[in-house]
Amino acid sequence: MRINKFLAESGVASRRGADKLIEEGVVKINGKVCDLGTEVNLGDNVTVHGKPVNTVKKYDYYIMNKPKGYVCTVKDDKGRKTVMDLLPPKTERLFPVGRLDYDTEGLLLFTNDGDLAFKLTHPKNEVTKTYLVKTEKPITEDELNKLRAGVYIDGVKTKKCKIRLIETTKNYSKVHITISEGKNRQVRKMFESVKHSVDFLKRIKIGDLTLTGLDRGAVRKLTPVEVDYLLNL
């Protein structure tokens, strides 16, 4: 088994997160630093930052309504609050699935199931994410149509997306936007491409999974039905 898959299935990080740890040189097999292509064999001693890695006996799945002011990392070298601080005490080793930036709130998943994390975040799987966006000024239908058709951010055109206007006043507009990509700060950059700043951004759905009944900052385990839904997306 490839080392990144082993780390993901062991609940250390998502497969992408595991790749980063390997590239940083903190992953060793039998005392030797490994690379991305290294295979793990039965009986090998795997360590990360010098701590042994054990295979996961069971998978756990949580959903959080992330508030602003938290970063989506397990640890932050700048000393900022992380989403891990909001998890219940004595929670099994988990990691966030994907990211929401510091000023974005909403639906965030946690698990130690590396395969599911990979499935939900890899662009090829096109898992949809829906966001509530509030702009700093009214947005026009022409601008919405440009976003729907795809706009250029960082030199790459975004895929077509769905946008529904929820509310508009002389001071702002609110829209729901559904995308199937996960580029860094994608929604904010999309709106910036049509000359709009985002005042408020909240992820409200992943696929058909919603935050219904979950207060800001609250966390709960996913139900078996919800887990089955995500596994079969």
Key terms for this structure?
Structural Genomics Hypothetical 15.5 Kd Protein In mrcA-pckA Intergenic Region, Chain A, Alpha-Beta Plaits, 3 domains, nine-stranded mixed sheet, elongated
Structural summary, described in words:
This protein has 233 residues and is of the alpha+beta class. The chain folds into three domains: 3-52, RNA-binding S4 domain (Structural Genomics Hypothetical 15.5 Kd Protein In mrcA-pckA Intergenic Region, Chain A), CATH 3.10.290.10; 61-122 and 212-231, Pseudouridine synthase I, catalytic domain, N-terminal subdomain (Alpha-Beta Plaits, 2-Layer Sandwich); 128-206, 2-Layer Sandwich (Alpha-Beta Plaits), CATH 3.30.70.1560. It contains six helices and 15 strands. Strands 5, 6, 7, 8, 11, 12, 13, 14 and 15 form a nine-stranded mixed beta sheet that branches. A hairpin with a 2-residue loop joins strand 1 (27-29) and strand 2 (32-33). Helix 1 packs across helix 2 (15-23). The mean pLDDT is 92.
End-to-end separation: 24 Å
The structure class reads: alpha+beta
CATH architecture of the largest domain: 2-Layer Sandwich
- Give me the CATH fold name of the largest domain: Alpha-Beta Plaits
Helix-strand string? HHEEEEEEEHEHEEEEHEEEH
Mean pLDDT: 92
Low-confidence stretches: none
Q: How many DSSP E strands?
A: 15
Number of helical stretches of at least 4 residues: 6
CATH superfamily of the largest domain: Pseudouridine synthase I, catalytic domain, N-terminal subdomain
- Global shape: elongated
For the biggest sheet, the summary is:
9 strands, mixed
What share of the residues lie within helices?
A: 10-25%
Q: What is the top-level CATH class of the largest domain?
A: Alpha Beta
Beta-strand proportion? 25-35%
Number of domains: 3
Q: Compute the gyration radius: what is it?
A: 19 Å
